[in-house]
Amino acid sequence: MPLDVLRLRDSDLSTVATGDEFKAAVLLWCIAWHQIPAGSVPNDERWLARHSGAGAKWKKVRTEALRGFVECSDGRLYHQVVAVKAIESWAKKQEQRAKTLKARIAGINKRLTESVTDDEKTHLQGLLHTLSQGLSQAYSASVTKPVTDRVTASKGTEGTVKGQGREGTVKGNGTTSPGNGSGAKSPVDPAKAEIWKTGRAILERQGATQEGAGTFLGKLCKDFGQMLVLDAVRDCAAASPVEAKAWLTARCQERRAQSGNKSSAIEARNRANAEAALREGGGHD
Question: Of 34, 139, 207, 237, which has the maximum CB count within 10 A?
Answer without folding.
Answer: 139
